[in-house]
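tool_call predict_complex ligand=pyridoxal-5'-phosphate
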Amino acid sequence: MDSLDFDTLAVRAGIERSQFNEHSEALYLTSSFVFQNAAQAAARFSGEEAGNVYARFSNPTVTAMQQRLAALEGAQACVATASGMSAILALVMATLQAGDHIIASRGLFGATQQLFGNILNKFDIETSFVPATDLAAYRAALRPRTRLVFVETPSNPLTEVVDIAAVARIAHEAGALLAVDNCFCTPALQRPLEFGADVVVHSATKYLDGQGRVLGGAVAGRAEVVEEVFKFLRTAGPCISPFNAWIILKGLETLRIRMEAQSAAALELARWLETRPGVRRVHYPGLSSHPQHELAMRQQRTGGAIVSFEVEGGREHAWRVVDSTRVISITANLGDTKTTITHPASTTHGRISAEAREAAGVSEGLLRIAVGLESVEDLKADLLRGLSG
Ligand SMILES: *Cc1c(COP(=O)(O)O)cnc(C)c1O
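tool_result ok
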């Protein structure tokens, strides 16, 4: 399978047919598996014989999803989890100990910030947050016990682009792992392992499913790291349901064509927004006005499907744009075929202090759009209604 192209792997990797020779991937809704005899049960439990035992450890549908995602990321191994957050938690629990230190890029997904900043510190794991694009800041934050560098690129909602290869070098010189949350780009647009990352984490809830149906997550990357994550999962239990894994497995088949269509629409919308009076600034890595446009184009195949823009007139104007939509969904979720709009300052970033929000660049006039598969003309008309010149 290794020599096959991404598009072929997306529809064929991970298939193991049952005795029924089904063509489509089977969904195994079973929590346990039976053994031929007591000796086989013992061999399976001890790990002497490979095979399924109990769905907290493995399930054929989950295995298929893991193998397909590993193939798409170019990873040696992959384990699936109940959600994106449980993927991040499992990675941390598997690789860190009390007293260890994390360096994370600023502007992480809100729950990841909460996990690192407010939960892990109870277990004596401290996190330093650094500006996503400031390489010197990563280096300056290193400590003897820095074990993990964690970045998200492009960042949410400002689409800042982290130089994965440069941060990988900094992490590795210090003996730390680099983990990249690849949720926004997916392997269809960006493969962080090729730039030196050790592991990729996913919220499969977003583009990997792609149609807003189920929660899921994954950790993919170097085999020895993924093996440690698996040991944590099989014991602690935040594993994915076979049904959710099946939905995501089938979602992967259309991932590239969805990502490319949604990116193309996002670029068109971003270019159009740049020309609108009343729009102060557009944040989109695919625009030549983006401060890391060149880096983004080296690292990603497109600018992605998330566009943020700042309107003049602060919250009042921003809320009017939101409230004037009739097609676009008002929801903080992303990665769906349906376009969504959110006002970060009053939703995803609402619990952060106003000063911290301004420092992070999340102004009162900022709006984030996750572009779906509707006609771009309909999306423009939907936004135009609330945009004043
Ligand atoms: C949604 C999201 C997560 C968390 O994933 P869940 O599946 O909601 O747990 C993590 N990182 C990013 C970038 C996300 O957008």
